[in-house]
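User: Here's a protein and a ligand (glutamine). What would the complex look like?
Assistant: Let me lay out the input and then the predicted complex.
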Amino acid sequence: MKIANKTITATRLVKDALAKAKEFADYNIFTFLNEEAALKKAAEIDAKIARGEDAGRLAGVPYALKDNFLTPEGETTASAHILQGLTAPITATAVKKLEAEGAIMIGRTNLDAFAHGSSTENSYFGPTLNSHDKERVAGGSSGGSAVAVALDIVEFATGTDTGGSIRQPASFNGVYGLKPTYGTISRYGVVAMASSLDCIGFFTKTPDDMNLLMEIASGQDPKDLTTLPDYYNESVIKPAKKIGAISDFDNDVVDAGIREALAKKIELLKSKGYEIVDLEMPTLKYALAAYYIIQPAEVASNLSRYDGVRYGFRSEKSDMLGDLYNNTRNEGFMAENKRRIMIGNFVLSSGFYDAYFLKAAKTRTLIVEEYAKAFSQCDFIITPVSPNPAFKLGEKVNDPVAMYLEDLMSVPLNLAGVPGLTVPAGTTEAGLPLGLQLVGPRRSDKSLIEFAKELI
Ligand code: GLN
């Protein structure tokens, strides 16, 4: 608005965002700063506005792009050594839509390599630091994007969420983070992790900004056949009356501060006249086990294309073709990427497929059914995002199972394809942000974002 009213120029906004990005360099938020192209675009937008032309709903708004979205600006690395040197020949559909409305990408943000992780410590470029405490993790995998918004470097940032990668870092940094209904935003041009779980979404400072970005980015894309027809822009906001609270999560695993924040918000909702429904969802406790079978299986398939021949980095050590594949993968992938490829191939191999993959797929169906049942009793559900606030750097990175347990409450939504929105819910005594998660039935995204305003 300020730009359209000529009280500030796009060039000023972009310069300020770039200056802030540099000021906060020690947080290790960006893998690339898009200075030249961003300033050029800002000048074009300023010229358009001077001519009295419409420059779009996001005219001159600086944003940060998670480094697993393909665009020809800078290298798309997904924070993985194996993709270094890759300049993408295409632009992701989501990016095209944002830029058609005048948004300007000022930089690419750090993530766990290939989005495998919950802390951004699995990045080839080193960890991103938490916006509120530099000794703690940013959360992950979209840690860079969350911190870029939390430190007010940009107005919004993109993320991907396969099992919590938007919602958990949003919670760790005190911003809004949405994982939409599966298929709402095109995945075309985004580095695939686990295709049946991957969702594109955003980090913002307000629910209204989230709504605007969803209006712009959602919709069917002929290049991604899993995208839904554009329900988002046709949604009529349905006011909620009944809110579900889940009694099944073992209270011992959830931090006391988070339980308190949840109880406070439930009281607030009651005082506003909402009915709180106690839900039993006993199958959710199996979601994590099912996720860490289904997701590596899809990872093993998606990552098999990185062989040193077609994309990015190639090991210098190899004379023979077989060595070239092996050495490239060995040097190019992080330990966590390799672990998932191995688990994935194991659970899909003959003899183990029935015991693991098939069982996990059946569990997934039960989880879908459990959500359907829950949403026959209430409009939305409110839960923690993760069992604890931001943990210390180095605390879990050498213990994969402890790291996987971070995802206990975020992965069920991806298995069911339902939307989840992280809303800020205060801080711990030490000043660390706490977030809660609002969950809705499929395609309720617009109403869910509107409902989030009730918790402010
Ligand atoms: N932390 C989860 C994992 O490592 C989710 C990651 C994501 O959503 N990209 O699988």
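Summary: The first strand starts at residue 30 and ends at 33.
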